[in-house]
Every structure is written in structure tokens, then in C-alpha cells.
Amino acid sequence: MLPSDLSCLSSAPMNAEGRPMDAAALKVQKVYRSYKTRRQLANSAVVAEVL
């Protein structure tokens, strides 16, 4: 089997561009990670003010 033939073995649903829907999940994870980082920085700033 050629590597190009292996795409039919993937169980991930495909979007309109033919890429796995995993790209959307990765985008959500990146957005959440950046949100979490901003919250941690904001919390650190509050703690630094209190000290």
C-alpha cells in the first residue's frame, strides 16, 4: 500500500478541504491554551500587587 492509499484508513471525518476535522480541534486547543496563559499572567499580576 502506498502512503497516499493510507488516507482511506483514517477514521477521522474529513472537512470540505479534505483535511481531517482534527484541525478544528487543534484550533480550539490553541485558543484555550492562550486564554489559560492570559489568566495565569493576570493572576500573577494580582499576586505581585498584593505582595
TrEMBL record:
PROSITE patterns: IQ. Pfam families: IQ (PF00612). It comes from the Eukaryota. This is Uncharacterized protein. It comes from Nymphaea colorata. The lineage of its organism: Eukaryota, Viridiplantae, Streptophyta, Embryophyta, Tracheophyta.
